[in-house]
Every structure is written in structure tokens, then in C-alpha cells.
Amino acid sequence: MGRKRKVLALAGAVVVAGAGATALFGRFSYAPMPDVADLANPTRSPLTTAFDVLGRRVSPAEAEALRRTEDGNRTLSPENGAVAIDASVVARGREAFYRETFGNEVFLTDVMGMLDGAITPFEVVRAVAALKGEATTNLKVPLARDIRIGERTYRKGERVATGLDVPKGGAFIIGIKSFYDRGHLRMGITCALCHAAVDPASGKVIEGAPNADLNAGLLMALAKNSAAYFMHASVPEADAASPGAGNRPALPDPAAVEAATKVQVASWPAGSFDSSADRVTNPTSIPSSFSAYGEPYSWSGREAIGPFSGLSSLNNNVHAANSDTTQLAAAAPWLFNLDPETYLGIVLRRAPNGPLRYDPSGTLRPSEVLRAADPTPASPGLNDYAVLPTYPATNYMTDNGLFASAPGEPANHANNAMSAFQNLLRPPQVSADVGTLRAGRAIFERAGCNTCHSGPALTNHRVIPAEEIGTEPSRAQAGAKMEARLSPPAMFATDTPFPLPPDPKLVPIPIADDKRPQVLLAWGQGGTKGGYKVPNLVGLAWTAPYLHDSGVSVGPDAGKDLGVPGTLDAGIAADPGNSLRALVDRQVRDRVVAANAASEKARTARVTGKGHNYWVDDQAGYSADDQKALVAYLLSIDRLVEEVPTP
Q1: Pair 39, 185 in one domain
Q2: DSSP letter for each residue of 275-305
Q3: Span 64-86, pLDDT tens digits
Q4: pLDDT, mean over the chain
Q5: Residue 590 in domain
Q6: 328 and 277 in contact (C-beta within 8 Å)?
Q7: Residue 3 pLDDT
Q8: Does residue 564 belong to any structural domain of this protein?
Q9: Whose CB among 292, 343, 345, 349 lies 3.0–4.6 Å from 338's, allowing a Cys bridge?
């Protein structure tokens, strides 16, 4: 019976992927990419940039003028860091957004055991088939076995909310790529998993909208080897190592580390992810990919330099730093105060049975196990990386000196192409009363919101000190330890082939003197306490809940659906209008903050809903109608301000 279920699971996975059964006898991979007709937001901003030169936008007219001189041609050269942008690059960016894993399927499947835990391919296939062509923003999957996470035991057959999105008429999950290799099934993730979502009204895909209910933390907690992500959580149990015999590394108790990691990652609110490997549980909201003029990027603004003003750096670090934790071993001494062998032993010890599982009683050390089974021996870790000579040092362009790259095209090209694609994305158009919107914009300006929220994307591109904005202080210092090992910012020339040639050309990335204090603040370095970037406001109707920790969350019933416990944790989507009101009304916010504080789960994840104490309420002299108009205006922002005709 067990063999029959496995065969059915494999066959089902192939059916879901849309391939024929013949794929079971060879190699096969598939990731869905919706047709334009299946998009809720097919309209894009016009392509007005011909080149990006380390964040400087060069228009077609300027590019034509530059090409007439020798100096101008040098400016637009790959050796100067220039990225040429045209329709083919945008098309490659869209394809990479949906289909490029950079090899993370090996870590997720063979190390973390995402398919060997309580959720199995067979149950996922059954859950998708049960939709019968209908869409869902939150696939419910029955568990294949009992699993304990903290004080709660999830029972076999219990249907858990995954937040995985399936569009109408589709038999696939957005952002999941399936691999079948002669009997071995793997799953990888693409950018679309977090940065595309299904519109609940139409069942169509919204490119660029955050997957606001993706339960990434719970999915990782349900995996076989959650401990492979212990460095992204508060797990002191990893430090209680017992000496190993002979040449074996000292290792902590495996059950204790696994149990603690499961509790910590399961505390992340739906729609959040902890991208900082600082050994502190501090998830942040998944951002949108409505990214044009939204620089700097990430919640702290630390992705600020290089191509596309840091957007390519953000795209890169998702895969170069977050989807394969084996690459962190070389940095373990100064980041985690752990010996590299101990670090790898923790990561690999509970991997599913296979070549990447470390056996403490065996003859191989953890690094030898990794090296023997590594599909990418030319780079550290398991993904496809172009490696700077300064690896594993941080250089403000890349956390670790790695650039996730696709073989057969220039190093880092897919990340740059995705930046070009993302900068054209716009959310679905919002219909609203023009008079109300004008009144709301007037309140926006009267309240001083435009002091920070200015410019085309309604951000002034600044990082605000944590003590000023009033949000979680420990999260703002997530990059502080990386100051111990810094190298001058650099990247590869944008035409450098991958795999790399013997002596690849490096491009230094200058940081202007007036920009350096902001970079240090964003990284929590240089004696600062870190900060939070001023977010852009395009697409607010699709990005609830609000603040960097998702803490300002109110559901449809504003009287009782309060905070993360009353919304996301209860399976209730945050209502954008009610949540925005809580952002600007101190009385509502106090109730939201109190609801978060009463939840042990929210306290574990350091989700408070505090900060950004700028009010548009009766105490500040605004009426209920003023507040309503402001919220309506904020929800109407569906494109860059410069694209909106002046009334």
C-alpha cells in the first residue's frame, strides 16, 4: 500500500504540473507561468529606461546621445556595471520570476525535507484536485501524519492552511517548481511563491502582489528537518553542544534543536518571512513587487546599491542567502559563534535519508558529506552561485559574496532581468469617487504624510532610525554582526558568463559620501541601532496587514478581528481599509497592540504593531469623514504618481 501511495503521489505531481505520464520514466521539471489573459493586472507601466547603470536610469534618448562618444560608450558598457533593458530582458525577467529556482530544490527537498514531513506530495495533489478548477488563495492540505509543534499536536488528516495559491482553472500552485529525476521527486520555489497572489474575486493572478497569507513558517515547521533553518530563529538549544568523538564535531541534542526551531518558525504570521540569519526570530511582511522608484529595498532599506538601486541585490539575496543555508558554514564563526563543522552537522543531521544526511556515527565529517553530494562543486552550498573572491564577506551588494545565477547566461543576469520586469508591474486598477480621493489627498498633505511619502512611488527613499519610528529594536539590528567581515562593494561585469571564466572582470560599486550614513543605518552598523525604510505606497489595497511586522491587522469585523491573533492566526484575511484606519487612529491601534501582546505566538515572533505614531484621528483634529477620505485615497494608489493625469 505504501508503494502504491508513493507512485500515486509521483503521478499526481506530474498531472498537477501538466505533463504526461511518460515523464515518470526520465527527467522532468515544470513551473507554471500564467498567460496574460489569466492576469488580474495585465497593464504595465511603459518601458522608459534603456539602461540601468548601478542604479542610474538612462532613457533611450540619453543612451542614444551617449553612444556617440567614447566616454558615453564606456558608461553604457558591462564593465561599468550597465544593464541593457529591452523587451527580451523583461520577458526573461518574467520567466525567471515564475520558473527560476537557482537549484534550491536540492536544499528544500534533500536537506530540509519539505516532502518528507507532515505534508506530502500525495496530499497536496489531492487538495488541488478537490478544487475542481476553482481558485483558492489558501490551499488546505490534509496532514499525512501526526506532528507536534510546541504544545500543539497536529493530527493526521487535519487540514492545515498553507496560504498556497491556485488560480482559477489551474491545476498548479503558483511559485512551486516540480522536478522529477528517475524516481526522485523534488520541489523548488521561485519568486512568484511570495510575490504573486490570486485575486479572490476573479481567481486570476496578480503579478507583484505579496502572498499575504502564505504560511511559510508553518510549512517549514511541518518539514522533516526544520533545524536546517535554525539560524533564522531564536534557538539557544543549538549552543548546547556535547563534544564529539575523534574528528566528529560537537553537536547539540537533535530533538531539542528540532523542537525549538519548529516552535519559532511556526510563530511567523502568515504572509511573513524571516530573511535575516541573525539567530533571532524576527519575521517581516512579504513586500510587494510593485517596485519602481521604491528604492532602497527590503524592510530595512539595506538593499540600496548596485543595479536597479538595490532591487537586484534584493532579488539575489532571496536565493543566495535564504533558500540554501548550507552556504553559511564559512561565516558561522563570526555570525553564530559556531564551528563550521558543528554548524553543518546541525543543518544536515536530520536531512531525509540520502547522500546529504550527516551520520554522527559515520566516518565522514559534515563538510565531507556536503562536498560528496554537492551538485554545484564549483561554489559553496548547493545552489548555483557565481562566487566573488571575497566570499563569505559581506559587501552591501551581497550578504555573502554570492550571486545566484543560471548556467548559460551572464552571472546575476536573471536577478537583473527580474528587476526590469518588476519595475513595470502595477496593481489592478482601483475605481473610486474622484471627489473623495481629492479630499483624501488633501488630508494626506495636511497631516504631513507627504513629508516622508513623496515622489513617484510615495516614498522619500529614506531609512528612519528604529528609535524614531518606534518599531521592534532587535529586528533593526539584524545585520550588525556582518560588520565583522566587510569587503568593498563589488559585482561581476554584467556580461560575465556563468559558470565563471578563470579571471572574471569585477566592477567596484561606489557608495557616495552622502549615502553612506543611510547604508550603515539600514544595516545596523557604524554605531547605529538600525532603522526601517519608508515604504512605497503603490498597491496598498493588496498589501494588508501593515507595518514591517504585519502587526497592524484588522479584519472585516473591526470590533473583534484585532491584531494578528484575531485575523491571520484565526484564518481571517486582514481588511485593507480597517487595517489602514488602525494605522492612523491611536484608539484602534491601542486595541490592536493589546491583542498582539496577549498572544504568546505573536510575542514569540516579536510582532507588536507598534511604531509609526503619526495620527489622523479626533485627537489630532480630524473628523471621521477626514479619516475615511484618507483611507480611500491610500487604497486608490494603483500606479506611480507621475503616471496619474493632473485633474
Answers
A1: yes
A2: ---SSS---EEPPPS--TT--SBSTT--B-S
A3: 999 999 999 999 999 999 999 99
A4: 94
A5: yes
A6: yes
A7: 42
A8: yes
A9: 343
Give Cα 586 distance to the centre of its chain: 30
Residue 200: φ, ψ to 5°:
-65, -25
Same domain, residue pair 599 and 546: yes
More confidently predicted of 212 and 26: 212
Amino acid at 217: G
What is the secondary structure of 132-169 as a DSSP string? Answer: TT--BSS-EEE-SS-EEETTEEEPTTPEEE----B-TT
Helix/strand/coil percent split, the chain, to 5: 40, 15, 50
d(C-alpha 325, C-alpha 319), whole Å: 10
Local confidence band at 14 (pLDDT 50, 70, 90 cut-offs): very low
Asked whether residue 60 falls in the same domain as residue 204, the answer is no
Are 66 and 187 within one domain?
A: no
Question: What are the grid coordinates assigned to 551, written together?
Answer: 502587526
Are 463 and 599 within one domain? yes
Q: CA–CA separation, 576 vs 120, rounded Å?
A: 34
Strands 385-387 and 284-285: unpaired
Question: Which contiguous run of DSSP H or E holds residue 91?
Answer: helix 87-99
Q: Which phi and psi (to 5°) does residue 518 adopt?
A: -70, -40
Is pLDDT of 374 > 60? Answer: yes
35 and 182 in a single domain? The answer is: yes
Task: Provide φ and ψ at 273, rounded to 5°.
Answer: -155, 140
Q: What Å distances lie between residue 569 and 16, 98, 161, 550, 608, CA to CA?
A: 29, 28, 10, 12, 14
- C-alpha grid cell for residue 469? 519610528
pLDDT at 642 over 80: no
- Give 383-423 as a DSSP string: S-EEE-TTTTSB-SSSSSSEEE--TTSBTTHHHHHHHHHHT
Q: Within a domain: residue 187?
A: yes
Q: Does 62 share its domain with 132?
A: no
Task: Name the nearest CA neighbour of 163 among 173, 178, 171.
Answer: 173
Q: Note the pLDDT of residue 11.
A: 39
Q: What's the whole-number mean pLDDT along residues 346-361?
A: 95
Q: How confident is the model at residue 26 (pLDDT cuts 50, 70, 90)?
A: low
Total domains in the fold of the chain:
3
Share of the chain above pLDDT 90, in %: 91
Confidence at 643, pLDDT banded by 50, 70, 90: low
* 244 within some domain: no
pLDDT at 179: 96
Cβ neighbours of residue 391 under 8 Å, at least 6 residues apart? 330, 380, 400, 401, 402
| SS3 state at 314 | helix
**In this predicted model, what pLDDT tens digit does every residue of 84-134 receive, in sequence order?**
999 999 999 999 999 999 999 999 999 999 999 999 999 999 999 999 999
Whether residue 612 has pLDDT greater than 90? yes
Together in a domain, 156 and 27: yes
C-alpha cell at 387: 562566487
Q: Which three cell numbers stand for residue 593?
A: 497592540
Band of the pLDDT at 22, cuts 50, 70, 90?
very low
